[in-house]
Amino acid sequence: MAKEKCCFGVDVGGTTVKIGCFDKEGHLISKWEIPTRKESQGKYILPDVAESLKERMEMDGIELENVQGIGIGVPGPVLANGTVERCVNLGWGHTDMKGILRQYFPGVDIEAGNDANVAALGEVWRGAGRGKKNAVMVTLGTGVGGGVGIAVQIVSGVHGMGGEIGHIHIRDEDQDTCNCGGHGCLEQTASATGLVREAKRLLQAAPEKTSSMLEYGEKLEAKDIVACAVQGDELALKAIDTMSFYLGRALASIAMVVDPEVFIIGGGVSRAGKFLNDKIEKYYYEYAPLTGSKSEIVTALLGNDAGIYGAAKMVLD
Amino acid sequence: MAKEKCCFGVDVGGTTVKIGCFDKEGHLISKWEIPTRKESQGKYILPDVAESLKERMEMDGIELENVQGIGIGVPGPVLANGTVERCVNLGWGHTDMKGILRQYFPGVDIEAGNDANVAALGEVWRGAGRGKKNAVMVTLGTGVGGGVGIAVQIVSGVHGMGGEIGHIHIRDEDQDTCNCGGHGCLEQTASATGLVREAKRLLQAAPEKTSSMLEYGEKLEAKDIVACAVQGDELALKAIDTMSFYLGRALASIAMVVDPEVFIIGGGVSRAGKFLNDKIEKYYYEYAPLTGSKSEIVTALLGNDAGIYGAAKMVLD
Nearest CA to CA, how far is B308 from chain A (Å)? Predict the structure, then answer.
């Protein structure tokens, strides 16, 4: 392996950093994790990543000249020059990721991107979007992330806001303020968090109703709601229907902008699979008569590895 | 000129075909029009275009080998291979535009695209989007057309529906059926037609009100409404405010998908200029807190020439 070119894909999350080593054809050779040290405005994060990569290179006998590149995804808006202005999730102010990593790996191609966009790139390249010309990835997690991929290129936009579909305004009557400063954003309704909020609202509004969701009490999670809905619980079904309605509508809007071949649903809630996709599709069809019957809605395939795949892809091009 | 390479941009409309001859740097050398003959399922349209081009070549002493390419825009969805399945505006069923034109111009590069996308390409390349990395064009005419340009490449989508932003569902209470089969579409409210409909609704709902729009009677046009609004007419201002509200919101959604550097407003209504742009911007800012203050809203510059510029650009790449 010492003579073969390889590359690294790095996915920096709020708790752990996932790292993958890929061969030059883009096959995952090994992967591991290190903790994300957020103390002191996150100043240790990139040095920790660099040190972990150097250790691995030494262990596997990889020379610097054999490293084709290092791709890195971080949870914040990344400008085209590989800098972030601010990344609240990591405690960073202005940070020149490429510049910092280049000090450790001189001459190596370094590319940086937003984590949701990078994960979308991974799914489009090696996951559910493989072989598709054009795909939109929707990640239903704590928020709603997204990525728009056109011919395995991510549309990150001019201010790094491309694919920020969680902040499409979609619901007028929702007056709670979103963390973007707006209200009625898609992610306030269609994320895992939003689904729980919706279910709790419904339970509160119908105290006389029996619901299997009540067993979970305050600890009710999105996956519990899905489980109850699959069992036919009326209020759980209603919560998922509301989520699917707004999500299906948002996908319809997105289709009229970029017209993807496939929508890829990822994140924890997507484990509901076809049960959820069919409900989303119903509303998507209704609000996108021009493409509704033509685009597919599928579940993501790579799970938590999407980020390292996408990060690697950035330097394999 | 006989020795210099040139190319042709062709913009096929429902009434006339506009044709431009460009030098290889993309400067417009001459332009002219021929009628669009829609009889017999539009079978004469492409032969008429070919004949007109041949005449011009003969007049100007242009040899076939000096023609770098011919780009053509038509009012319908165009697939990546340059065919249309159906183009109701021209009477066409399945039509292989590239194949037909190649018979007249063997060896010449022929490219075809949707007219709104092609006009957007023209504006992005040589008009209001010149020098921008990323732009979305919104054409407010009989309907609302659009085009999404990323680095002077148009995102036409997998089914030719990219940039069909006029069919973003935006207004729940609007139950009239749109020609796409949906309802509450952006173009039902924000086109020239939609603005007239809105103004007539307001006049009907407030018969006791005086309005300078009443002078125009049934013949009221979008430009009259703009003129009345600029003069301070209350109902005309209200109609334009409603249009701007929904348009601003739609632009906010689009920003969360592709995050453009600039939105270019074209079409007849866009002649209202800053008066209209400021109103759209107000709502755009409100619903896109993440990018609102960063993206510009500007008026298109090329007018009816956008289509021939964009068509030429397709073959100059």
Answer: 23
